[in-house]
Amino acid sequence: MGAGHDHSGAVANAAHRHRGRLWAAFALLTALMLIEAVAAFTTGSLALLSDAGHMFTDVLGIGMALAAISATRRARTDPQRTFGLYRLEVLAALANAVLLGAVAVYVLIEAVRRFGEPPEVLAGPMLVVAVLGLLANVAAFALLRSGAQESINLRGAYLEVLGDLLGSLGVIGAALVIAVTDWWWADPVVAVAIGLFILPRTWRLGRAAVRILVQAAPEHLQVTAVHDRLTAVPGVAEVHDLHVWTLTSGMDVASAHLTIDPGAEVATVLAAARDALHEDFSIDHATLQIEPGASAGACGPTEW
Questions:
Q1: Residues 48 and 77 in one domain
Q2: Domain Cation efflux protein cytoplasmic, which positions (predicted)?
Q3: Within a domain: residue 300?
Q4: Are residues 62 and 133 in the same domain?
Q5: How many domains does the chain have?
Q6: Of 116, 163, 171, 178, which shows the fewest CB atoms inside 10 Å?
Q7: First-to-last CA distance in the chain?
Q8: Contact, 210 vs 202, CB < 8 A?
Q9: Is residue 71 very low, low, confident or very high in pLDDT (cuts 50, 70, 90)?
């Protein structure tokens, strides 16, 4: 026997609500990425190149977010995909983290090479393009901010834009320093700062995605607390084979076997257990198997 309360549609709709904003941010950042890439090679600025590379991952990340949202909605009509394609969102976030980390490492290596003999940089064009990049990132930041609270995929794009916004400020600062003092080291110094800023955020995003993919329990939730709460439900004698994991952003799920006391009403126990998971842990999708006390252990080994 089982009980469940599925809010998967709400998760999909949460991401879908922000699709228009994602498209706007995608178009804006794509245009500025191309401008920055051309300007980086024209001016010789590594800092500007790193910002363009970072913006490329923004564009790619938002593109994957859009693709994941579309695929998830289509999969809801496929009876063979019983959980839809919600994990595409997590895979896209992991890909973003890997790409962003690769860009950061490349920038750091190239910056170290330039410290020995920093090339001259055209500060004027570098400054103009960096200001345009800053304005584009401010607009994209505003577009993605609300959705970042609801979706790990949107959060990945949001964090990338946030890092790029700060990177644009760094490029502006480097351009001003070079224009005023001809201190060419400002360019690789800012490039290193951008790379070091990106790496820890990339690590956290990748770690969150991997944690979901290996079906570990959510960090904010203690499995022992879930066990104790279900055990405290009136009519429940024992809880075993308990599993709690995250399917995608905002969708924690659980399964458990509940051994009930003789004479306990199955429907009442199921309703109370479901309400406890919802109210105490925000778990709205739970599969609960009821086992009368006399048949305890009849479900077989549950070593995993």
A1: yes
A2: 219-292
A3: no
A4: yes
A5: 2
A6: 116
A7: 21
A8: no
A9: low
Name the residue with higher pLDDT: 54 or 212. 212
Asked whether 141 and 117 are in contact (CB, 8 A), the reply is: no
Place of tokens 């969102």: 89
In a domain, 103, yes or no: yes
CATH number of the domain that 170 lies in? 1.20.1510.10
* Structure tokens that stand for 268 in this block: 């009442």
Angle made by CA atoms 107, 113, 119, in degrees to the nearest 5: 95
Contacts of 28 (CB under 8 A, 6+ apart): 136, 139, 140
Q: Which amino acid is present at 105?
A: V
Q: Which two tokens stand for residue 59?
A: 């564009």
59-63, 186-190, 192-196: least confidently modelled range: 59-63
Q: Are 15 and 251 in contact (CB under 8 A)?
A: no
Cβ atoms of 110 and 191 closer than 8 Å:
yes
* Pairwise CA distance, residues 260 & 263, whole Å: 8
Tell me which of 43-52, 138-147, 173-182, 225-234 is least confident: 138-147
The two three-digit tokens of residue 179, written as one number: 């224009």
